Amino acid sequence: MKKESTFTPWEVKGEINYEKLIKDFGTSQIDEKIKKKIQKLHPLLSRGIYFSHRDFDKWLDAYASGKKISVLTGRGPSEKMHLGHLVPFLVAKSLQDEFKCDVFIPISDDEKFYVKENLTYENAIKFGEENILDIIALGFKPGKTFIFQDFIYTDIYKYAARIAKRMTYSTAKATFGLKPENNIGWSFYPAMQAAHILFPQFEKGKHMTVVPVGIDQDPFIRLTRDIAEHKDFNFMKPAALHAKFIPSLYGETKMSSSDSENSVIYLSDSPAEVKNKINKYAFSGGKATIEEHRKYGGDTNVDVAFQYLRIFFEPDDKKLAQIEKDYKSGKLLTGELKKILIDKINNFLAEHKKRKEQAKKDLNKFLYKR
Ligand code: TRP
Fold this sequence. Notes:
Number of strands: 9
Distance between the termini: 45 Å
Number of helices: 16
Helix content: 40-55%
Shape: globular
Bound molecules: tryptophan
Order of helices and strands: EEHEHHEHEHEHHEHHHEHEHHHHH
């Protein structure tokens, strides 16, 4: 990583070297053996966007030997959701479908309230409620999916307190790069997220949980693994699956609305907005003129429209390979490639909208109650 780069759960800036992160964090690469077992799952897993893990092999073994397993991933509700936010949830759903397991989804409205200077308490709760509907709309199974918001399901506090007692301030400070001017909410919050990660074990007894997350969240996993086996808890160390970042429309490392509303696709964008954003802003790997493009072809490695098809919207490997071939050869033009993506996204969002309406009715089936 370059000197100017920042890498914490709350801020990611600059070039990212994923290989180096595996080394620095001491995680494991997702190897061929694991790849074989996740080949048929979501493209995010089968196409390598999830690139690193901790003990995921053990989680798979636990499943294979008939032991209880679960999946947990969370959301910090600082705003309405965009495509990039879906990454861990699409994977959680894919794991639920394949392994028929429970999924737990904590919503850290408190976290975002602490770290976002301008986010009010009321709005943190509101974004949380709104985001929950988007998450349910992805198709999670009622009765096997448990969602809660920290500010609403305040029972979580008793677990956070027991964990906080076993975490020192200096560990939190070093792990998260806490600064003297940060409010003390920042220093307590890691106990809360550790409570989320151990929640399935607190509530349902000792078992393996896997946590799909962006690699920037690994510090939380590490802290939690360090205390899971403490005699106060006697839990299993949670497993993790780590994702790379999804590029913004502009082609920057991480899709984030803090740069510009035009660099992300919101789940609430209208068909016209999607069309306009992709056509106008999606970074293209095509050539400057049609003649040049026909002659030299486009670069699928940097083309954002192609990347989104690969990551989310074209699960069929054969179709994707054809698109890649046609684009590289110059047969497929940038506008045509973008049109494929625009239609795919708009179909997805139209369906999502309907499912979100239904989610309002089903909400109670998903909110965690003891
Ligand atoms: N901190 C995460 C984020 O900002 C959200 C989150 C809350 C989470 N609790 C979690 C992620 C537990 C994984 C596990 O995106």
